[in-house]
Amino acid sequence: MEDELQVEAYKKFWKFYTTVHTDASPLLPYEEFVTDQGYTMGWFYDGMEEDFTKQLLNSINRFSHEIDVIDIWSNHIFTNYSESEQFELAYQFLELPFYFCLNQPQSIRDRIIYCATHLCHQANLFRKIEGYKDHLPDEKKINKKELSNRLVHWDIKNILIDNIESIASEEYLEKTNNYRNLAHHRVPPELEYGHTGFIKRIGYQESSFEYTTFENGVEVKKIKETNGVAYSFGGTPPLKSKDMVELFKKQHCLLIKTFCSYWEMVLEHQKYSKKIKE
Q: What's the total number of domains in the chain?
């Protein structure tokens, strides 16, 4: 019976996807992001750029696809089934794309930082900037600050950094309950069903309270300071995919905007190469 339910539901999903669905988040066209190979910054730069750009396009387009998958299941297919049936279908078809999408904004943002840092480093070496050496920190230490330092001599610097900073903002972290970091390092909220974190140790907390006593027959108000371990009770509710779809779409738009500024950086590098060679 469970297998029949899954087959029937997936047929409905696929029919909707192929006949009714239109991409809410259009895919980026690969053919539009190709450099003029006649003007290069060397073999290292060219190899990195082609690989990095393709990987970034793949990542952003896959994010777009999985957003659409979540949207169809949550808002068009599940409405045809009972709550118990939705539970089974969510486990089979929804949790993995939901988990994937919750991880993507920060992951792709950091990937853009990594790729842009390496390309800008190679461009700086090609430019022969005085005092600039072929030195980068360990891979795991490449971050926004490293990128910013290597963008100093390029016009795109402020635009690219500003766009990077717009991704996974405080608002996004709050609405997703900081899911990505908790999933990788602690205990995250559940997806669709279930609660977590019924008891949490907050740690040492300082507090004070006012009380009344008598001294020499006179009523006196005093304040007492306390310092002790505190615990919280209650639990964290699950994240609901239907509540996250529009949030994911906004993040996808920000990622496209940031990728386009990354590409403007690549074109600026190419423009400098043309100027030197011509």
A: 2
Hey, what are 131's tokens? 């005092």
Q: Distance between the two ends of the chain, CA-based, in angstroms?
A: 71
Burial of 249 (0-12, 13-18, 19+ CB in 10 A): middle
Q: Are residues 68 and 19 located together in one domain of the fold?
A: yes
What per-residue confidence (pLDDT) applies to 223? Answer: 79
Q: Are 120 and 64 in contact (CB under 8 A)?
A: no
- Give the lowest-confidence range in 156-160, 193-197, 198-202: 198-202
- Are 65 and 113 within one domain? yes
- What are the C-alpha distances in Å from 156 to residues 12, 27, 32, 42, 219? 46, 24, 19, 21, 69
- Which pTM value belongs to this model? 0.86
Provide the residue range defining the domain that includes 205.
Answer: 199-233
Q: Which runs of consecutive H residues, i.e. helices, occur in 151-240?
A: 157-166, 170-175, 179-185
Of 205, 59, 52, 188, residue with least CA distance to 121: 52
Digit-coded pLDDT (tens) for 61-84: 999 999 999 999 999 999 999 999
